[in-house]
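FW: tagging you since you asked about this chain on Friday. Here's the raw sequence from the shared folder, copied in full. Didn't touch anything.
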Amino acid sequence: MYKKILVALENSSADASLLPHITELAKQLHSELLLVHVADGWAARNFSQLKLAESEEMKSDRAYLERSAAVLRNAGLAVTTHLALGEPPAEILKTAERERCELIAMTSHGHRLLGDLMFGSTISEVRHRTSIPILLVKAARNPG
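HL: got it, structure written out here
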């Protein structure tokens, strides 16, 4: 069960809420982790089509994935990374299916009404368009 887990990282403080849960789950189940971040800036969305150079945002996101993976590898876990480009829900789903992931792990921010419309669309789209189980961990609120 859950031999391969896709971990959708935001490159934000929310990831600090998700990673401890995933670390423990992966250790208990001997799961492989696939860390995924979807770069969705203008350069990322037009990268292939316009044959653009990798943006600073994309370089930063890739470095973040590698730093996160290194921490998990040091904890004894098998970890790979993937920087996807484009629309987050579509890229998360495409990657999960292509890589045969058995669980998708994401953070939830607990928005309400307008916040859900603006920020909750990734989770909503992912959960409505897949049969892969999803683990949602509520992101801790930042003080201040």
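FW: The longest strand covers residues 32-39.
HL: agreed, and The chain has a mean pLDDT of 86.
FW: great, closing this out.
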